[in-house]
Amino acid sequence: MNLHTYFRSSASFRVRIVLNLKNQAYQAIPVHMLRDGGEQHSPAYRAINPLGLVPALETDEGPVLTQSIAICEFLEETYPEPRLLPADRFERAWVRSLCNVIACDIHPINNLRVLKYLKTELGHSEEEKTAWYRHWIVTGLEAIEKMIGDRAGQYCLGDSITLADAFLVPQVWNALRFECPLDRFPTIATVYENAMALEAVKLAQPSAQPDAE
Amino acid sequence: MNLHTYFRSSASFRVRIVLNLKNQAYQAIPVHMLRDGGEQHSPAYRAINPLGLVPALETDEGPVLTQSIAICEFLEETYPEPRLLPADRFERAWVRSLCNVIACDIHPINNLRVLKYLKTELGHSEEEKTAWYRHWIVTGLEAIEKMIGDRAGQYCLGDSITLADAFLVPQVWNALRFECPLDRFPTIATVYENAMALEAVKLAQPSAQPDAE
């Protein structure tokens, strides 16, 4: 499989974690999101993924897969072991809900293109951009801390790693990068530490990528 | 089932469509997102959904379900007929990807709370807010028009209604509300019209809700 990825892309990071947890080898094809106005917008890349976003996954069997949630669901269906969605449908809904808090309520608002719009179209300063970033991350992490407070064990849902962890880790990694302290989120901090200790997660982190800077 | 909903909430609209398509009766419990600083933030509502967002679905069997994607996946698993995710796993990934373009790439950036932040925290005018809104909607609809261009029939994926339509309709409804013309998106316009002709969709639209204004 070929994964079109950018080392710092949080959505790519999620998919890398899932591929590693499922022991699926893949070839990383870096797409530099800042070089030349963003390689994801190049005609060559748009021919692979017309959305002009990473990640995109090329399998040996069918059309290119896009959008991290859809890719992770596909990987869960195609490589069921180890399972990353619980067997119980209420628990499964809970895990998906947590993924969505990250993938819908936090990440898109702090995405590169949105920050760029704030700066270039609306003329905001670095400080205002950072305040924006932190505001949405803190709002989201508060919600997650509440959600996992009484359900977390080693990981978000008890002691089994799930898609929720694969989504949480990259978001926390981003938060730390923007120097958002985790003191108010002790459960999140513990889960993050436990997940980051796993080889599959460690190998998926930005600094371990071939295109890391 | 009790669905906590706001007539204009696009995420609630998605779930209402899915419940209707699956012939599942539910009780709508309106949560007024503008009254008194937003009823979704009230302690009473937060006791039901700590995320302070709509929709939230209370079933008779288990804990409250949150986040529209997670709720729709739950409904698909619990009430498999009529199926809203295709049997083929590549087609399923495609449908989910389209849902994610809407639920992750368009909607969150134009959400009420984000527009509010632009106005109150960053001091932007109505014009700037509207320009922001239209920018993200047009970017997203361009991507969708490309995606469905050669796959759509009556609906996004051929002639069977899927989750993709349940997500697209509310987004287009929003676009029209903000007077974004659909001329450049002929496939989207056709799919929207066909889906809106269905009784299940018509009954789910904002103007048909008990809390409609």
UniProtKB/TrEMBL annotation, chains A, B:
Record domain GST N-terminal: where: 1-83
Membrane-spanning residues: none
Gene Ontology cellular component terms for the protein in this record: cytoplasm
Protein encoded by which gene: maiA
Gene Ontology biological-process entries: glutathione metabolic process; L-phenylalanine catabolic process
Any Pfam family matching the protein: GST_C_3
Family named by the database record: Belongs to the GST superfamily. Zeta family.
The protein, known as: Maleylacetoacetate isomerase
Isomerase found in the keyword field: yes
Extent of the signal sequence: none
Keyword list, A-Z: Isomerase
EC number(s) reported in the record: 5.2.1.2
PROSITE patterns in UniProt: GST_CTER, GST_NTER
Superkingdom per UniProt: Bacteria
Domain GST C-terminal: 88-213
SUPFAM superfamilies listed in its UniProt record: GST C-terminal domain-like, Thioredoxin-like
